User: Fold this.
Amino acid sequence: MNSKTIETILVGSFLALITAIINQIFAGKIDYLWVFGIFLFTILLFWLFHGTGFPFTKFRVTGTNDGKGLLFRSDISSGKKVGEAWQFPSDKSDWAIYGPYLRQPLHKGKYRATFRIKVDDISGDNRPIVDIDVASRCKEVGDKRLVGRTLTTRDFIESDEYHDCSLDFFVVSDENDLELRVFTRNSGHTITLDHIQLSRRLI
Assistant:
């Protein structure tokens, strides 16, 4: 069952429940305070869905083009696994992390890609460190960039501490061959990517 089906079931069931409770309120069988409770519960539900990213898929660097894990640039000779994370130097300007080329298309809807990244040193000027983006059609001639952002030292609160950097985007029609990418800026920093989480949003 994919995320779009789950979302449809959740929203449909919730709307049916609200309708039933409102009918009971007008019939005088339920106290009007239920309206206030439903309102708060609705806000909480949408906030949880938006904030936690449920349902979500978490991608880690595996180096295998199987549609399940992220790939890494083959010439990152000093790149290495650090637990579940992938650590690499920003020693040139190039795509360092990309993929995973999802086998199933990304359907129409609102999405969020969250890059969990840390940098060894954020002192000094507000310099660009890496670019993060989401693109599709990457196996065709020329890709389609859906959203992107440049991360600088000001995007990180502490050195060598993980930060969640999110990109919100909207898919108008089905997108294939999805890539979640990290582009190094030859900044001299050491970058560690824990994972990238892709989630659907209601709002």
About this structure: The chain has two domains: 3-52, 57-201. The helical segments are 3-26, 33-52. Confidence is low (pLDDT under 50) at residues 50-54. Residues 3-26 form the longest helix (24 residues).
